[in-house]
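User: Working on a comparison across species. This one is RQC P-site tRNA stabilizing factor from Litchfieldia salsa. Can you predict its structure so I can line it up against the others?
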Amino acid sequence: MEREVIIMRLDKFLKISRLIKRRTLAKEVADQGRISINGIAAKASTNVKVGDELSIKFGQKIVVAKINELQESTKKEDAQNMFTILREEKVGE
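Assistant: Here's the predicted structure for RQC P-site tRNA stabilizing factor from Litchfieldia salsa:
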């Protein structure tokens, strides 16, 4: 029996996982070209799946996270289970 691959919009994942607190802000960050999925620039409407690696530029910092699970909704204390921070890098001017 084939396992169904669950996908979710990038902006929704960022909000539910609380990597970015608001969906409108997640959309802005994505549409400014500050997020990539597996090394490819992503828009807010790009679909993500378990195992994808996100790279998000927050000001002078780049956060790289791996998606562990996708959920339609989650409690605040469970949100960090949806991803693993692989590394954080400071970006020089």
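For your comparison, note: Helices lie at 10-16, 23-31.

User: Helpful, thanks.
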